[in-house]
Amino acid sequence: MDVGLILSNILNPPVLAFFMGMLAIFLKSDLEIPPPLPKLFSLYLLFAIGFKGGVELIKSGVSQEVFLTLLAAVLMSLLVPIYTFFILRSQLDTYNAAAIASTYGSISAVTFITAGSFLNQLGIHFDGFMVAALALMESPAIIIGLILVNVFAVKQEKSEFAWGEVLHEATLNSSVYMLVGSLVMGLLTGEHGWEKLKPFTQDMFYGVLTFFLLDMGLVAAKRIKDLQKAGLFLISFAIIVPIVNAIIGLLIAKFIGLQQGDSLLFSVLCASASYIAVPAAMRITVPEANPSLYVSTALAVTFPFNIIVGIPLYLYAINLFWR
Q1: pLDDT digits (tens, 9 = 90+) for 21-30
Q2: CA-to-CA distance for 282 and 279, rounded, in angstroms?
Q3: How far apart are alpha carbons 1 and 196 in whole angstroms?
Q4: Contact between residue 264 and residue 115 where contact means Cβ atoms under 8 Å apart
Q5: Cβ contact 119:166 at 8 Å
Q6: Burial grade of 124 (CB within 10 A; 0-12, 13-18, 19 or more)
């Protein structure tokens, strides 16, 4: 593998900020980001990426390639939690297996944004319709996870879910709503809207991303101690499964005929794990599952792995296959 790709990714200011945050915890610094700001940063990043995606989607139009990509995105978000559930169930109870499977069937918007930053740094083009794939992949895994609990849970009372509440949480949580809403806004306003909001959605973007990843480094380092509860099986799972999912994603991207930048983003979506939307939904609907398992594996293992090693590794594979 080209070590230069890894160095290029690591020497990206947002990624360095992530390390800076982790190091602050290890050195017992009193550095912290005031609690309301990370949520604001998250909403801003989702709005900026969604708005840009809507504008770019107008330019590209809805072609066969776009349709197949979005269809593949939904299928992956449905199939990944199913196959990972049965792997996890060999070692865990139904509730924890379903919660972790949903986590890995959904996506990490910040990993996607970091991959986009990496592509921009290398000057590799990618299309805005990939943001639509991002939006579509967040919710289905939550619903599949709850269906798995409903089918396989031993306790009969778990067969009755407030499905209205579940669907509302899965499809209208703040992340999905902001992403889809800004995507529609970009579609409606187009290039004119982009020029108006460019100082906000473009010029500020990498500064906000840098501070957000600084906070993610702080949070991830604090979660490392929870890995003791996860054990070697889950730690291995949190690295191997993203790689497997990325390979599947790359094969699908090659079949569809996606260009290199879009292929990387699709593989990153397949390889990432949710640490915001899914945990929020699981805490409400599957309280029997242990949050320290599904949050720590996604945030303290898979997220750092993807932004440090995974993204350049997947691009290296693309460079080999696409030749």
Answers
A1: 999 999 999 9
A2: 5
A3: 42
A4: yes
A5: no
A6: middle
